[in-house]
Amino acid sequence: MATIESTTEIRPFSFEVPEEDLVDLRKRIAATRWPDKETVADETQGVQLATMQELVRYWGDEYDFRRFEARLNALPQFMTETDGLDIHFIHVKSPHENALPLIITHGWPGSIIEMLNVIAPLSDPTAHGGDAEDAFDVVVPSIPGYGFSAKPTTIGWDPVHIAEAWITLMRRLGYTHFVAQGGDWGAQITDVMGTKAPPELLGIHSNMPGTIPPEVSKALATGGPAPSGLSAEESRAFEQLKFLYTKGIGYATEMNLRPQTLYGLADSPVALAAWMLDHDAKSYEDIAAAFAGHPVGNLTRDEVLDNITMTWVTNTGISSGRLYWENTLGFFDVKGATVPAAVSVFPRELYQAPRSWAEQAYPNLIYFNEVDEGDHFAAWQEPELFTQEVRAAFRLLRTNNDQGRSS
């Protein structure tokens, strides 16, 4: 039986993928059997053959995983056991005094890789055009079943359980006050943390907030018409969500119902890559542009392949998808967060949350802003803009936070 000391221990972590695993990956890539080209001129049938063939060419001939491995190992990484499961996380302390502790949670099909370009400007703002007063201690955990965190072998690791684990993690790191941020699954987990409202949690920030009013959620679920009286912004959000629910979440439906059926994600790197690219129409457009030689923001082909390759070498294609099966919460529904909350709306997100809905969803809304660039992967694609939003969102909460930092 494990002792209390061993289960609460924080252990340094680094990784090195065996060369034979990378050789096997390249062999599998080279042996890809291609389907016929899609019969339409757009992406309505899915990830296009030309995009995948260019991805495979670059992945097999030019991509350097060791570059990414070295980049990640240059960061302070750790493991700690929570509820019987090893959790991997990055923990970068700011060089500035009175830094505000911040836990950032990724989503699917992303990972901690989404956040790598915001860690330095958030933790050391003076080295990146900011002020010392905006400094954060940054904690970026891997969701269970993703990346280097352990894969649950029993049921129960849903967003509520993960939110509880994150609170435990921040306490274990010695923080008596902290803030939380998230997008995608990270947004839902962060919302749940805001609902649980532990005394240490000063506030939350979301770039994909849960704001849909119950009557709107019901209309979307039943395929009914939009409720009457919606404003122009609310009607726009309704139409975006209607498109998403009817044409944009095939991946989520499969993982919600039958994640174990997706054996191709463990057996074929190209199947995994196509599955991970096909998240939402606007992000796919940006990723396809990257492989056509025209990256939008920081969402480059190397960044995209870092994420896919890490998922491949850790064999977490299916284990990450089980989170959809575990979840019982409405993804965009109001969760009932009571702590101070901030919202940033990116123009190419799955839906653009109206301020009116955000004000209803977060009774203690302290910040709301619509930005001009960025898709669903806000921190990944637009790290500078994302950093500015996080700094602005939490400025109002920086009173007496000096007691919140660990030693």
Q: What is the CA–CA distance across the termini? A: 30 Å
Binned, the helix content reads 40-55%
Q: Main β-sheet, in a few words?
A: 9 strands, mixed
Query: What is the overall number of helices?
Result: 18
The count of β-strands is 9
Shape: globular
Strand portion, in percent?
5-15%
Low-confidence stretches: 1-6
Can you give a write-up of this model?
This protein is of the alpha/beta class and 407 residues long. The chain is built from 18 helices and nine strands. The chain has helices at 4-8, 19-30, 49-61, 65-73, 116-123, 159-172, 185-196, 214-222, 232-247, 250-257, 264-267, 269-277, 281-291, 301-313, 317-326, 355-361, 378-381, 383-394; strands spanning 10-13, 77-82, 85-92, 100-105, 136-141, 178-182, 201-206, 341-345, 365-370. The protein has a nine-stranded mixed β-sheet, with helices on both faces. Mean pLDDT is 95; it is low at 1-6.
Q: Summarize this, please?
A:
The chain contains 18 helices and nine strands. The chain is α/β, with parallel strands linked by helices and 407 residues long.
List keywords for this structure.
407 residues; alpha/beta; 9 strands; disordered N terminus
What is this structure's SSE topology?
Elements: H1 4-8, E1 10-13, H2 19-30, H3 49-61, H4 65-73, E2 77-82, E3 85-92, E4 100-105, H5 116-123, E5 136-141, H6 159-172, E6 178-182, H7 185-196, E7 201-206, H8 214-222, H9 232-247, H10 250-257, H11 264-267, H12 269-277, H13 281-291, H14 301-313, H15 317-326, E8 341-345, H16 355-361, E9 365-370, H17 378-381, H18 383-394
Parallel strand pairs: 4-5, 4-6, 6-7, 7-8, 8-9
Antiparallel strand pairs: 1-2, 2-3, 3-5
Helix pairs in contact: 5-18, 6-7, 10-15, 12-14
